[in-house]
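thought: fold this chain, then report.
action: predict
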Amino acid sequence: MENNKIKVHYKNELNTVPMRDFSSLELNLFFSICSKMKNKGVDTVRFDFEELRDLSKYKRTAVDEFSDDLNDVYSKMLNLTYGSYTNSVIERFVLFTGFKIDKNNQYVEISVNPKLEYIINNLSSEFTKFELNTFTKLRSTYAKTMFRMLKQFRSTGIYKVPIEKFREDFDIPETYQMGNIDQRVLKPIKEELSEFYERLEIRKLKQKKRNKITHIEVTFKEKEKPKVPLHNWLED
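observation:
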């Protein structure tokens, strides 16, 4: 399949797990892996280095450097934990449990935790889907995260979130004041994502009496893709 047609699919709950400390390059690698793990069940999946470089738009060519970056990605993936909590039991799981990097033969093998394989397998409802090619073109990690969120809420065209949850989901440093968020988070989001939307408005909603920001609200409408003329389709 051509890279510009590859889709990433996963249950919406993955969007609630902050991708703490992931760089833009590491996010590209992570979601490239997710795109190829889809509907593979709990089977171990092998990626050639070249294939993964191509999917993730990875530009560096040194094998050792690529191996180190893959290892860094997996170290951060180990912190992407899912949990269930009751009064007496706490359980936590990681999405990918098997990870083998073979530098000599230039491949990586990955397997999914059986208890969490539903996150990327047999999806029929409440899932996020987006184009990997578009995602890897985005530079800002904040733009990448917002891109995923808007894909989740594409049916309504409205993404509204409490400011505390926004800070958490987007992994915004605690030291950032609202001015920092405007310049370093919201500005790159608007600049990068406007290319893909006919309308993209970001508003900071305030509490009426105290003039305190309580929510971030994004309203959006995706640009329609040009339709392929029927005669072109018949000629292919």
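thought: worth noting. Residues 178-193 form the longest helix (16 residues).
final: tokens above.
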